[in-house]
Write a structure and sequence with these properties.
With about 350 residues, the chain is of the alpha/beta class. Helices cover about 35% and strands about 25% of the residues. A hairpin with a 4-residue loop joins strand 15 and strand 16.
């Protein structure tokens, strides 16, 4: 009989436990549900959802009752030490993520699912990566799209050469805040470009000099554009056009996701260089949060890596910070890895 893994949730707020209520009546709610960390943990048949934690007692007790969890805590350290957890799901604001991950890894937690944004600075990301590497901790990041069948199908078609050599990836995600919005866009640029290393990035944001306090940005700035050059030769663009659609352009065709993931199109060049749509089989629409948890379970079962491991999470986080660093330098290209490890996007609420 397959093993079950004991899991605990840290953070019982919106993304931790209640966001499902906001989306359950939307068209295509199947894109999301189960959406919150708690709902996904409860839905995963291989998980024993053992405990929740939140410093606000009312939130912890509400999540405990809603999801039928045995224990609720105010201190995540106490929960981890007492509950002998295999997996921890972190759904707090990004500021505490680094210290939480480092503590969990040190206490023998074997797998971590961490909400986005990953952290506030690359200094924090470095600490998280070092702790998880040292202990062999499996990790997935809450940029859910990379776990779902539709986006994985698009990536597969690229890898199979269906559109020829991939030349560019374009994120049509509008103008949005860097950390709370475009962490998703940055991760998809990385994912659809093949998850390779970036050479440099550039960006433009809405920031005034008063928004800076040394290396700390006191706001989560709106990014209006971004560009990344990957070492594999792929150009990636974040543009102000909305729709939450992603396009991959190749030497022989184009792929485009539709309306935040309800479908995709494949168009191939004919002998005249015109692009004609090619019918594709439907792809099931499933919850990215649940798929991310299930992928962690599979990694625990087999000892392999995950689809959204911490090294990839650090790369996508670094793209966001590099775009902001580029804006501060007048739009100049910023070489990667980012030299300014203490540059942070850290409003008081983060």
């Amino acid at each position: 009989m397959p093993a079950t893994y004991r899991a605990g949730l840290i953070g019982c707020g919106r993304m931790g436990a209640t966001i499902d209520d906001e989306v359950k009546d939307r068209p295509h709610s199947e894109l999301f549900l189960p959406y919150s960390h708690a709902a996904a943990l409860a839905a995963c048949q291989r998980i024993e959802f053992a405990a929740v934690c939140d410093p606000v007692a009312e939130k912890a007790q509400a999540a405990k009752a809603r999801y039928g969890v045995a224990a609720a805590y105010a201190d995540y350290r106490e929960m981890i030490q007492k509950e002998r957890l295999d997996l921890v799901s972190i759904a707090t604001r990004p500021g505490p993520h680094a210290e939480t991950v480092v503590f969990a890894a040190g206490q023998g937690v074997r797998a971590i699912y961490c909400e986005k944004p990953l952290c506030n600075s690359m200094r924090q990301a470095d600490a998280m990566l070092a702790a998880c590497r040292e202990r062999g901790v499996r990790f997935n990041y809450g940029t859910q799209r990379r776990f779902t069948p539709l986006y994985r199908r698009v990536r597969q078609l690229c890898e199979e050469g269906r559109i020829g050599q991939v030349q560019a990836v374009v994120a049509h995600c509008g103008v949005s805040v860097a950390q709370w919005g475009h962490t998703h866009a940055a991760d998809m640029l990385l994912f659809l470009a093949g998850d390779g290393e970036a050479e440099f990035a550039q960006g433009h944001a809405v920031i005034s000099e008063d928004d800076w306090e040394g290396q700390r940005l006191k706001i989560d700035p709106r990014l209006t554009s971004g560009y990344v050059y990957f070492k594999n030769g792929v150009h990636a663009y974040l543009v102000a056009a909305g729709g939450y659609e992603f396009e991959v352009s190749g030497s022989q065709g184009k792929l485009r996701t539709l309306s935040n993931g309800i479908g995709y199109t494949l168009r191939l060049a004919n002998k005249f260089g015109q692009f004609e749509e090619v019918a594709q089989p439907p792809v099931p629409i499933t919850s990215g949060t649940l798929k991310g948890i299930e992928d962690l379970v599979a990694a625990l079962d087999g000892g392999g890596d995950t689809q959204g491991n911490l090294e990839l999470a650090c790369r996508s986080q670094e793209l966001i910070l590099a775009m902001v660093a580029s804006h501060r330098q007048g739009g100049r290209r910023v070489e990667l890895p980012l030299a300014e490890r203490d540059l942070s996007i850290a409003p008081d609420s983060y």
